[in-house]
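Memo to structure team: turn this sequence into structure tokens by end of day. - J.P.
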Amino acid sequence: MPAALAFAMQALTLLPGLIQAGADVLALIQSTTTAMQAMHAEGRDPTQAEWDALKAASEAALARLDKASA
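Reply from structure team:
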């Protein structure tokens, strides 16, 4: 098998995981936007629980992206 074809096949096997990881990142952006709009409407800062949830969701999305690209 030519090296270029092997390279292309390897790249294609990564796509499903990268697409899912991208969808996870998009969901994180959307949920964060919704939370920020609620905070703005309520005239308040984020709670510690909201900060913790954002950190956990961000770390999980980055881990999925790292795993998908490995």
